[in-house]
Design goal:
Elements lengths: L3 E6 L3 E6 L3 H18 L8 H21 L2 H11 L16 H14 L15 H20 L5 H11 L1 H13 L3 H27 L9 H7 L14 H21 L4 H19 L3 H16 L2 H24 L1 H12 L2 H19 L10 H4 L15 E2 L9 E2 L5 H30 L7 H20 L6 H14 L11 H9 L8
Antiparallel strand pairs: 1-2, 3-4
Helix pairs in contact: 1-2, 3-4, 3-8, 5-6, 5-17, 7-19, 8-10, 8-11, 10-11, 10-18, 12-13, 12-18, 13-14, 15-17, 17-18, 17-19, 18-19
């Protein structure tokens, strides 16, 4: 490690920071080049033999510059880039997970006290973190017992979706976003992200498709003929709907905070377009989740109760006008609202999942074992067709099952009721603690926003699987921000200082 220097926090305290020496950055560059050459040797053929090491050197210089900056910048960039998780290979980056690298960098900045993190308050460990740690250990043990721990996709699900990354972000978020200025930067990031996601969703649904970026979104839609549900950069309409709704909530908060300025009017426009993006996903779970979240939050505030009915009327009139102007969208909406196959899918999968829970209730079938174990638990119903899995048409290939469209039931099937309970307690304690915890008045809006997001998340989790990181990552990050960083209850003094204060005569107070 390089030398420790002292960075002042105001004029009262100092914290040691770590600035790695130049040879450590050179070592990082060499390790990155060697790893890349081992994993993807084709990138070093021909003229790329010179260009690729130069590109890695530029990336290391960027990391070095970010190391000197506050972690809030790195964290906001990681959150914004998480929407492309799973699409880096389609963007020509060879599967390089930029969002995970930036999130890891932000965590290291906080843990190793980078120069930009010298002003941050210390991390505070609570009992909820112990429950989260137990849930992670349980999921890893389940994967090890089931033989899926060596599967990269299974490991990524544990890391990105179940808990490791979301729980770590929940731990560091109160410190990283400890001031109104840092929280305002997160708001601005989510407003900008909402502008991109809503515009992309609108263009993907209504065209022109040539303006959709990245282009892999259009290619993904073309590979699914007959599926008219915009998935955005996630290539998944449910996650796209969640992201649009979360950004709509953030934009509404920004409008209140920036009211009277041009940025406030822009935030209001972004909130409206994001809600329209939720509708365009044509996912009924997204529709119900958004309505439930809006109603719950509106009932919790005096102004919300006053505007609930007028807002509903305005929304219905606006949506009716859009459907009248666009017959194509009106037809798609009617078809989606009346379709029955997805309902049959969920009924069959839910029935099969309940049979699996009854067979192994406590510990489940093992992490990521639903697809391999569930086929024999499907039964033909008298009232609806047998759906819920998609047979591959090529002779000789096995049937490919759809993921279980109920997050709670999926965890109960794979890691048992015990594992599902640990996960539910972790999420519920984090969110509930954040909502009811004491904090500055500035945090009240974040608590209301968290309430909206968790209601949406809870509703959608009943009817859809969560297989991408953005929903859980943003939910837990938001919970950490809303919880806040409580000041220390007492100040530890040196013995001499305590003696001096104890022997100092009391100062009389007038009156």
């Amino acid at each position: 490690m390089g030398p420790l220097t002292l960075a002042a926090e105001g004029a009262a305290s100092t914290r040691p920071v770590w600035r790695p020496r130049w040879h450590l950055w050179v070592l990082l560059w060499a390790a990155a080049v060697g790893t890349l050459h081992h994993l993807q040797p084709y990138r070093f053929e021909g003229h790329k033999l010179v260009l690729m090491p130069l590109a890695v050197a530029v990336a290391v210089l960027v990391l070095k510059a970010l190391w000197e900056r506050p972690p809030v910048i790195t964290m906001c960039a990681a959150i914004a880039l998480t929407v492309f998780s799973g699409g880096w290979g389609q963007m020509g980056l060879g599967g390089l997970p930029l969002n995970r690298l930036l999130a890891l960098l932000a965590l290291l900045q906080v843990l190793f006290c980078a120069p930009g993190a010298a002003h941050l308050p210390p991390l505070r460990f609570r009992n909820v973190h112990l429950v989260m740690f137990a849930a992670i250990l349980y999921a890893i043990g389940s994967a090890a017992a089931a033989g899926t721990l060596g599967n990269s996709e299974s490991l990524l699900l544990i890391t990105d979706v179940f808990g490791i990354a979301p729980f770590l972000l929940f731990l560091v978020a109160p410190a990283v976003f400890s001031t109104p200025q840092e929280r305002n930067l997160l708001l601005a990031t989510l407003v900008g992200l909402g502008a991109y996601l809503s515009l992309t969703t609108i263009l993907e649904a209504l065209g022109p498709h040539a303006l959709v970026w990245p282009h892999y979104i259009v290619l993904s839609d073309a590979a699914r003929p007959g599926v008219l549900k915009p998935g955005g950069p996630f290539q998944a309409p449910v996650e796209n709907g969640f992201a649009n709704f979360a950004c709509a909530v953030a934009a509404a908060m920004a409008y209140v905070r920036w009211r009277g300025r041009r940025s406030g009017r822009l935030a209001l426009l972004v909130s409206a377009t994001c809600l329209f993006g939720c509708f365009l996903t044509l996912e009924r779970g997204v529709w119900v989740g958004a309505l439930a979240a809006i109603v719950v939050v509106a009932l919790c505030t005096r102004s919300g109760r006053r505007w609930l009915v007028p807002g509903a009327v305005i929304g219905v009139l606006a949506l009716g006008a859009v459907l009248t102007v666009s017959p194509v969208l009106s037809q798609r909406t009617s078809e989606r609202a009346n379709t029955q196959q997805s309902v049959w899918d969920r009924k069959n999968m839910t029935a099969a999942g309940l049979r699996m829970v009854a067979a192994k209730p406590l510990f489940g079938f093992g992490w990521d074992r639903y697809e391999e174990e569930s086929l024999e638990y499907f039964r033909q119903s008298r009232d609806y067709p047998m759906t819920g899995y998609t047979p591959v048409q090529t002779i000789g290939l096995p049937e490919v099952l759809q993921p279980l469209h109920n997050t709670y039931l999926a965890y109960a099937v794979e890691i048992g009721l015990l594992g599902m309970l640990l996960w539910l307690v972790s999420i519920g304690w984090a969110v509930g603690g954040a909502v009811v915890s004491r904090g500055t008045p500035d945090l009240r809006a974040w608590k209301l926003g968290l309430l909206a997001i968790v209601v949406f998340f809870a509703v959608v989790s009943f009817v859809d699987p969560h297989q991408l990181p953005f929903p859980v990552v943003l939910l837990m990050l938001w919970a950490g921000v809303a919880w806040g960083n409580e000041p220390a209850r007492e100040l530890t003094l040196e013995p001499e200082r305590r003696t001096t204060l104890a022997t100092r005569p009391a100062i009389p107070v007038a009156g």
